[in-house]
């Protein structure tokens, strides 16, 4: 998987019956093949609002949603590909370039993004 790809997968700690939309935020790193992924959650009162995606910004988004930077992760892109091949995750339509850029900008802006993810993202953007 590469930046802009999306898929359905349960969010951490939530029933497997509740898939969330996840977005691949970076292309695989050349050395480790790692990517950053973030999930979306319904926009509610206490939800993080660093980046809010509006209904229709992606075909899966049926109501306003927030990017849940506290749950973002580094994961091997090959693991995602394997999970997609085995049906453990369900690929969806890719997100637009504008939406992807908005989410990428939020990685460093959010106070809830894990430091490890921020450091990884900062290091790969310096290489470009």
Task: Tell me what you see in this structure.
It is a single chain. The chain has 128 residues and is α+β, with helices and mostly antiparallel strands. The chain has helices at residues 77-86, 97-109, 115-127; strands at 6-10, 19-24, 34-42, 52-53, 65-76, 90-92. It has one domain. The protein has a six-stranded antiparallel sheet with strand order 4-5-3-2-1-6, with helices on both faces. A hairpin with an 8-residue loop joins strand 1 and strand 2 (19-24).
Keywords, please?
single chain, alpha+beta
Brief characterization of the structure:
By secondary structure, the chain is α+β, with helices and mostly antiparallel strands. The chain has helices at 77-86, 97-109, 115-127; strands at residues 6-10, 19-24, 34-42, 52-53, 65-76, 90-92.
